[in-house]
Write a structure and sequence with these properties.
Blueprint: H1 2-22, H2 26-43, H3 48-56, H4 62-69, E1 74-75, H5 78-85, H6 88-100, H7 102-112, H8 116-127, E2 136-137, H9 138-146, H10 152-168, E3 177-178, H11 191-197, H12 213-227, E4 236-241, E5 256-257, H13 258-263, E6 266-268, E7 280-284, E8 293-296, H14 298-306, H15 310-323, E9 339-340, H16 341-353, H17 367-379, H18 390-395
Antiparallel strand pairs: 1-9, 2-3, 4-6, 4-8, 5-7, 7-8
């Protein structure tokens, strides 16, 4: 009996060990995936011999998968995000590049309606004016993601487009360095954006977003124009809200004309009148009622089509204003507690348990959660700005750092 028992466990251990050793590694699965990538490239019209040679030489990038899976532990606050991106170095460097490219930037403004300081702000935020364009091999990174089951279709298409760009612009794979997700050049275009919007700005007959600053700036102008930029209008502005302002009026669903906002007690940041205008906008309060508030217009949404983040759009807008000579924010950035994703999940659970439906707790401060916070704040006579203040978190029994 003992012999049979020992034999059984020995057999089980051997079987499990054998199965584990036979399971393909990620690198082996990547190699097995390569023929399908060659086929997709050929189906798009690229030469089979060249594509096979290029794709066969690509290497699996474990770091790419690690970064793709990485989840932030903490929720980044607006003051932390903003202060790291809109700083004296970027402002001064932007002004230097304005002087360097003044005539060319004005030409782009005349053609596309994008003022120079906005193009410089995008450039500054994306790559520090070309100082850091990424060091990951783009084709290897895209192939790694294309062979990963999470977003195969999207990254396979981006890889095929990148291979086409390589051929079209006579690039070598070693030239094509960028972010871990495949964004490239001075303006960090994904391959599809490169294909659809990049243009020859310096007139040399090629489009090289790595080497040519003029190609990159012209491409950014064309991209923003195609995304819907409205010439002659600003992105938004910092504003003040009157005492007792109803914070239920903030957010994209509450667009009103400048004239209407003025009647509701909204003024410029220095306290002067907004004036009378039909242009419509909505209020963004990214760090609660103690921090700066912004009235934003249609071009703010265009910036968000480049990068779907309100923090990013405010940073681009204000950096552009500063490059053009505007003053600092009037309302200082507040000191805020640090919230972990786990803390926000606990808050969401608290709201749900108290009859305020914010959906499945996920740690994300999305529109539904912010509206739930406003509801809880109104119930408890707090300023209903939709921001998870320490007062609310204490009430929910959630600790902050």
């Amino acid at each position: 009996m003992l012999f049979r028992c020992c034999y059984f466990f020995a057999f089980l251990f051997f079987s499990i060990h054998t199965m584990a050793s036979e399971a393909p590694s990620a690198a082996e699965a990547f190699e097995a995936c390569k023929p399908s990538l060659v086929q997709r490239a050929v189906e798009s019209g690229l030469a089979q011999t060249e594509m096979k040679a290029v794709i066969d030489a690509l290497q699996y990038q474990a770091r790419v998968i690690e970064l793709d899976r990485r989840q932030p532990e903490f929720v980044q606050t607006f003051p932390d995000y903003f202060s790291k991106r809109v700083n004296a170095w970027r402002i001064n460097k932007g002004r230097e590049h304005y002087a360097k490219h003044k005539e060319f930037l004005q030409k782009l403004n005349n053609q596309y309606g994008i003022p120079p300081h906005y193009l410089l702000a995008f450039w500054g935020l994306e790559t520090n004016y070309g100082g850091y364009k990424g060091k990951m091999p783009v084709l290897d990174s895209l192939a790694t993601l294309a062979c990963d089951p999470r977003r195969t279709q999207y990254f396979t298409q981006e890889l095929v487009v990148a291979l086409g760009l390589m051929v079209r612009e006579s690039l070598s794979p070693s030239d094509m360095l960028g972010s871990w997700a495949g964004a490239m050049g001075h303006t960090q275009f994904m391959p599809s954006a490169y294909q659809n919007y990049a243009i020859d700005g310096d007139g040399d007959g090629t489009i090289n977003l790595w080497q040519s600053e003029q190609d990159a700036l012209a491409s950014a102008a064309n991209f923003l124009s195609q995304l819907g930029w409205k010439p002659g209008f600003r992105w938004g502005r910092e504003v003040q809200l009157a005492n007792g302002f109803d914070y239920a009026l903030i957010g994209r669903s509450n667009k009103r004309s400048v004239s209407e906002w003025a009647k509701l007690g909204v003024s410029k940041a220095d306290g002067s009148s907004l004036g009378q205008a039909d242009i419509k906008g909505y209020l963004v309060v990214p760090s609660g009622h103690t921090g700066p508030k912004f009235l934003v217009y249609d071009n703010f949404r265009t910036i968000m089509r480049w990068n779907n983040s309100e923090f990013y759009a405010i940073a681009v807008g204000h950096l552009a204003d500063k490059i053009a000579g505007a003053v600092d924010l009037v309302t200082p950035l507040p000191e805020l507690p640090t919230y972990s994703l786990a803390s926000i999940k606990k808050l969401q659970t608290f709201l749900n348990e108290n009859g305020i439906d914010v959906g499945r707790p996920d740690g994300i401060l999305g529109p539904m959660t912010r509206e739930g916070i406003r509801t809880a704040q109104r119930r408890n006579s707090m300023t209903a700005d939709g921001f998870p203040s320490k007062e609310l978190m204490d009430m929910a029994g959630v600790s902050t750092n």
